[in-house]
Amino acid sequence: MERPSLEINLPDTHEEGKLYVVDSLNNLNKLNVCPAESQHALDEEENTLGAGENTAGSNRKQCLFFVTFILTLIVSLALVSFVIFLIIQTRNRMDQISSRLLLEKKNIEELKKMNNMILKHLNQSGFKE
């Protein structure tokens, strides 16, 4: 079943007229290729998918990007907070250690003085005997 090809000479029209003619030719070609029932299904698919997919897909991408961005910010904030907490804890521990070292240094100096006093006392008592 060969069908004759449709040859139409397009007159000089404006761009909108050319688009209308091309759209009409596409519709005519669909009618010749597809039976009436399937043509109706194709038209419904084009109407629902053509406009809906672009906006729905775009909205999904924007929503996904927004959610990813928010999650990234939350994770970053949590990590920065944890690092600040660790810095503060480390500073507190270092302060405690340095204060303990100072106390121990004072204790060691007092022990040295007491040791010197004891040695002097022993030396003096040993010479008297």
From TrEMBL:
The keyword Ribonucleoprotein does not apply. Keywords: Membrane, Transmembrane, Transmembrane helix. The chain crosses the membrane at residues 64-88. The keyword Transmembrane applies. It comes from the Eukaryota. This is LSME1 protein. It comes from Columbina picui. The gene is Lsmem1.
